[in-house]
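Consider the following assembly input.
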Amino acid sequence: GAGVSQSPSNKVTEKGKDVELRCDPISGHTALYWYRQSLGQGLEFLIYFQGNSAPDKSGLPSDRFSAERTGGSVSTLTIQRTQQEDSAVYLCASSPGTGGGTQYFGPGTRLLVL
Amino acid sequence: AQSVTQPDIHITVSEGASLELRCNYSYGATPYLFWYVQSPGQGLQLLLKYFSGDTLVQGIKGFEAEFKRSQSSFNLRKPSVHWSDAAEYFCAVGGLGTDKLIFGTGTRLQVFP
């Protein structure tokens, strides 16, 4: 079966522009996560969706960052008024949502803000 | 506070040598423990996981890890490293009732021929 997919794989934008990153989770997975990985850094948790529950937004670094998940499947991470420090790899993962489940990661979107 | 510590930022080993990557965790409930590997330019791939039972777990690519509750550790080992094992390794902890994981900062493994 298909794994987690993300698009675009690479995105170059100018400072101040808005960007949208897309994540298609594994079919049937109710939990979806966004992480940020800056150069040479570990994984920074951004946001977590579980079924129809309110998302856990505790990791979003500023109000320029938002995410939505439509129909319990595809998710879009939006960064408004991008800054150079937003340059990073944005990773999406999904899991069955049954508790203690393995997270399956997509290949990531590499964002460069000029 | 819940956390994962990987004390070694960067490790270099010779091909064929043994490997141990350290991981310590702090978690308020029974932990579920994971090791993931990230090859350059790739997403994370699960190596192995511990939920319960035998404290020595086997994973893919010849890796194993041992859960030691008394030491709050879950160290990753491999008896003989291959050049293709060069990658970033992440330890993570989660618990019952949630799939949300807390990740360590990673250990970068470099393998010399």
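The mean pLDDT of chain A is 92. Ask yourself how this observation constrains the way the partners meet.
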